[in-house]
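Bench notes, afternoon.
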Amino acid sequence: MARRALSGLATETAGARRGAAPVALAALALCLMAVQASLAFGGVADAWLHAAAFVLALLLVVSCLAMERLQLRSMGWQNALLRRAVDQSSAMVVITDTDAHIQYVNPHFTEVTGYTLDDVRGRNPSLLAAGSTLRSVYRELWRAIGAGGRWRGELCNRNRDGETYWVAASISAVRDPEGHTTHYLAVEEDVTARKDAEQALRELTQALEQRVAERTEALERANGELEAFNSTLSHDLRRPLQTIGGFAELLREDCDEALGEPGRDYVQRIQRAVDRMRVLIDEMLALARVQQAPVVRRDCDLTSMAREIVEDLRRAEPERRVEVRIAEGLRAKGDPDLCRVALENLLHNAWKYTRPRPHARIEVGVAGAPFYVRDNGIGLDVEASAARLFQPFQRFHGEPGIEGNGVGLATVRRVAERHGGRVWVESSPGAGATFYFTFG
């Protein structure tokens, strides 16, 4: 029945063409009767004339019959081609009558659903419904095809083994030459893999959103704890240091003779320890500010910044003679305050680690994309200290006169990373160091 529905239009066209053969036969019969009448009542000339007409009518009949046979062969070939195309289609094809009783399914339908034509013939396609498609979808479907139109959409179905699958369906009415709906045709593509991928993507997105929310909450909590810690550093730890430093100063001023030489040495040690602790607190607060401060990018004149920092260093140690070369036109897009913090730390380190050199040299420049601060100081073993180099509170030198708390390079790294850049070093013991840095 389904194949008759698929070939109905071609059959009706062939029937219209076959109507020519009876007309030709009728003309042949009339010509034969005219010949017989001419022989009986007329002359020989009339008989020959009607005989010629008979022969022409006979040729017409033979021609019509031959054409009809060719047309039948052509229609048979077209119908066979149509059947093969439907049977071999990679899409599922379902044909129902107007009461939605299945009349035909192609082999790919069987591959996907597990149902053969014998299993579903005469049954309603609703046997495939998984129950998750909204009823409003089915109402819209029947409204469209019931009016002779087409419906396109996605449906969730269930195969013979109870597994769900998704199809992208195109369902339309099949009409005869008079425009009457005779069947319904559904062409469906299995889109289960795509739907599964979409669901996996949704689940991954939800998981990422949840993770982001959790990390945001943890970050806010950490920031709150960091602010509390900064407050403790700034106030609670400074007060005891001020008290200790104040009493040490009083001892030195009021009890100097009573202390004696050992006592005075103890007081000086206390004061030096207090000073070191104050510097450490200041550096820790600076590191925290670098981490929390918003990055506001502007055009930064690194050349001018470097010159101002070096002038401050010269005023602090006027007795030192250090050759400093600063390239012209060093500019970067970054936060001016944070960029200055990074330069200060790098130049302070270079100034500090060149103290043992009688002819100290410091250079600030650019090498392609990265900027650099280079010195001829005591250098360091990069391979041995690579894992700790830019971590807070890591020191790599114990030489006399080289103070520090191991916070400077960690601060530089955080400044660079907050700009989307990085910092790295090339150095070896005794051969100086070159620190490269970018601001994104």
